[in-house]
Structure formats: C-alpha cells, structure tokens
Design a protein that fits this description.
- The radius of gyration is 18 Å and the shape is globular.
- It has about 260 residues and is α+β, with helices and mostly antiparallel strands.
- The protein contains eight helices and 14 strands.
- The strands form four sheets. The protein has a seven-stranded mixed beta sheet with strand order 3-8-9-14-12-11-10. The protein has a three-stranded antiparallel beta sheet with strand order 4-6-5.
- Helix 1 crosses helix 8.
Amino acid sequence: MTHGTAADFVTLGDGRALLRGSTARLVRWFDDRFLQMARQEGALECRFPATIAGETLARAGYFEAFPHGATALGAGAGSYYLPPAVCYHAYAMLAGTRLDAPARLTAVQTCFREVDRPALTAARLWEFTMREAIFIGPGDWIREERARWAERIDAFARDLGLSGSRAPAADPFFGGVGRGRHLIQQLKGLKEELRLDAGSDTVAVASFNLHEGFFGTRFEITLAEGIAAHSGCAAFGLERWALAFLEQHGSKAAEALIGV
C-alpha cells in the first residue's frame, strides 16, 4: 500500500515499510539532526549488535513489562531476539561498572515490536528505526537531562512548523504489567511523548523517559558513592518524524528541507 502523502513511503502490509528517494533521505536527515544534538552534549556514539540476548531483556525486566513485545529469532538461533529498543544494549554494556561521572550515549538501530506486527499502518510499524540519547547518573541530573531534551525537541518541531503537543504517556517503559505499577509511573510522569499531527490522527514521534534506579539496580551500574545509578532516555522514531512532516508539509517541502 502506498502512503497517500508520498509515493516513496510504501507500507508493505506486514508491519514493514519501504522508503525511497527523498523520503529515505528525509529519515536520514532527521537522524543526522538528532545525532548532532547528542554529539553537542558530549554523548558517546555507539553501534550495537543487530540482535539482543534474551538474558539481557530478562535482566531489564522487558518480558515482565511487555510479555508479548519481543520478536524471537527462529529455532536453533539460541536465545536471541530482535531489539525492541536501543537502550537495553547500553545497560548491558555498562553492567557491573561504577561511574565516576554521569554518562551520555547515543545510538541508532532498527527495532522490532512484535505486538505491532498486525497494526498494518505507517504510524505503527513492526520494524522501524530508532535513535536514542541515553543518560545515566544521579537522579536530579537525569531529570534535568530529560527536561532539556524535551524542551529542545519541542523547539526543533516548532522551528520545522510541525503542529503537535507533548503530554504524559499512558503506557509504561519498564516494570511489571500490573495496573497499579502503570498508574504509579503515570502519576510520577516518568514518560512523556511528543505527538505530532499526521492526517486525521496524531503520531508519537519522540518519548522522554525517566527510569529512576530500575536499570541501574538490575544491571548493577553504580555511582562513585556506590549507590545505584538512575537512567533516562530520549527516543526518536525516525519513520514517524518523516511521516508527520510529509503529512503536514508534503513531499515538495521535504525536498526543499533536505536540499534536493
């Protein structure tokens, strides 16, 4: 199925999409902007494996939070999965370490959400590309980082003339599936989303997440004083940014933006 705003954004009907020409370059343009922002903050750029160990997802509590969320590799491949998010790799990389100073990292990866395989829409793909900025350190510093990223991305969207709003998100990022745990995360404001207008609906193009000491405890990442590190991240769905831009401004504006 060809998406209505551009012949170069094609949903394949199985949770995947084919991007061509200026639309493919638009996705790369957005990733370049987010990478540049992370570099300006001194983030360490990482390139993680294309798969993730089931042990890592279990340690991160992923199966507790999203029992049907991960896509497993076929029989005989061992306990490996297609990554549902980028930041789990970062915690595994830092597992068992003591940080002398707060850490900033960034990476981009093709991610997969098994629960979204049947969605069949351009706005909710099974296979998609995510850039994350990940920050690990003291709790107060993490909250400040999250706030700065959220404000910076709000301004970035406004500068592009993109309409939408940021609001607390209803779905959790970590922890068990119980309603009480979800409610606590919502009340604490641990996850916010920037939703941009896309046709008759809105699409979440970015999330800004606080994990408190959850992953620091799970992966034994500590601060200099020996207490569990807090963590947070800003995550960007690159195809969704392209989709929202195309819906609001069209392919001609996209070509002008990327300099075609």
